[in-house]
Each structure stands twice: as structure tokens, then as C-alpha cells.
Amino acid sequence: MEKLLTAHELAEVLNLSVETVWRYTRQKKIPAVELGEKQYRYEKEAVLAALAHGDNVRMSSKEESPVHPKQGGYTYEEYLKLPEEPGYRYEVLEGYLVKEPSPSIHHQRVLRELARQLMTFFDGFDPEGELFFAPLDVILTDRNVLQPDILFISGARRSEHRLEERIDGPCDLVVEIMSPNNRRKDRLQKMEIYRKAGIPHYWLVDPEENILEAFVLKDEYYTLIAAGGPGDKFTHPDFPGLDLNLDKIFYRPALG
Q: Residue 243 has what pLDDT?
């Protein structure tokens, strides 16, 4: 049986505050085992499933046909059968189909500048490695098909990938740029999927709060190792020589 977690342990696993865990419990957004008055324990997988379900698209009766299985039953093969829909992109997270609108202009500006600076750095740091951008399928398991905004595959890891139509298996760095409608998904469920896949570096970029957070996988869990925003110096101990210009990355031009 899966170990039951306290609110403090769950908060640490999910990288949330304990107050947020209590709020989700009161609002019944997450399942809890009640031991007594205001005493709760949590099953991690059940909590992750509940949080993921809240972000996923509701399927119509047509989409629940044998061609489009009910939520929780999607695999990569089912994902390939989805018709293209301009203005949207799909991912499969633990068997749940997630549908999101195309990114905003500011999201794309942040992505473009961050990618430009990373390309310049990695060209010297690891010239045999490759940097890629969404949309590009990353298949971590049959029930986890993701499209990270930015990903890097080192030269040492390239032999593990065919690098033709998609990425099969983990990469070295994944960067997700959050949007108002996907903050919880990127910070909770996708972080957990990347953790289980053993991806060593996960970065979260928040264009609304103007902050970049860099997590490193240590002892099977992500640890925040660097963070910054405009005006800050952003370096990383695992990438000597990296010095991101966060002012340029988060620059938002004035409306004309």
C-alpha cells in the first residue's frame, strides 16, 4: 500500500505551501483520508490524479467513442489518431488528454529570447547537443506524451535517440513557460512526470511574475537551485559560463 503523506510531506513533494494543501483539502480539490478532527493523510498518486483531472479538457460524447477513449485511457497510439485543430495543441498526461490554446504573443517573445541565449551558450558548452522547441512530441511512456516549450539533448545522450520525428525517452533539460491557464499543471503534474522520467533539469518560467526557476533532480526529487527575474544575475552551477540576461528574456515592449 502506498505510504500516506502528511500535509507537510505532500507540500514538499508538490513544491507547494502547506497553506495551499490545506486550502485544496477544504475545497475538496484533493482526496484526503480523515483520521480525526482536522487530521488528514494523503495518497500522492490520488492527489496528482485529482489535480490533473481539474486541468484537463472535458470530452464530448463523440470524443468518448472507441477512436477517442475516455479520459485516463489515452495512449500514444490514440494520441496519433487525434485530428489536427488549428489554434490548439494536445498533450497526454498519465493517460489524460490535455487541450490548450496556442501560446500568447508574450509567451512566444519569452521563448524566443530564452531559446536564443541558450542556443548561444550550448553551442560552446556542448556543441554536439541539440536544442528543440515546441511543438515536438516527447514520449516518456505510452501514457505520457508531452510538448515542452524548450528541451535540450546533450551530445552524450544523443545516441539514445533516433531524433527523427519525435523524442523517445528523457532529455537533459526541459523548460516550460507557464500561461495563466496551465500554471498548476506545469508546477505539479508535469513536474512529477519529468521527475519520474529522471530528467535532471527542469526549469519553470513565469512571464506574469517575471521569474525563472531552475530545479535539479537530487535524490529522486527536484530541488530549486537557482531563480531570478529582471535585474538579477542568473547563473547555474551545472552549466559553467551560463549567464542569462533576464532583462531581455522578460522584456515586454510598450503597447503602441
A: 95
* Block residue for cell numbers 493523510: 41
pLDDT tens-digit readout, 47-86? 887 776 654 433 333 333 334 456 778 899 888 888 777 8
Q: What pLDDT does residue 61 have?
A: 33
Spacing of C-alpha 101 from chain mean position: 16
CATH number, domain of 134, equals 3.90.1570.10
32 and 117 share one domain: no
Segments in 133-255 forming alpha helices (H): 183-184, 191-197, 246-249
With a CB cutoff of 8 Å and minimum separation 6, the contacts of 212 are 114, 203, 204, 205, 206, 227, 228, 229, 234, 244, 246, 249
**pLDDT per residue as tens digits for the range 82-126:** 877 788 889 999 998 888 888 899 999 999 999 999 999 999 999
Length of the chain: 256
Q: Is residue 65 part of a domain?
A: no
Q: From 85, 103, 254, select the one nearest 178 (Cα to Cα).
A: 103
161: helix, strand or coil: coil
Domain count, the chain: 2
Which of 44, 56, 49, 50 lies closest to 11, judged by CA? 44
Residue (of 122, 130, 129, 167) closest to 145 by Cα position: 167
pTM to 2 decimals?
0.74
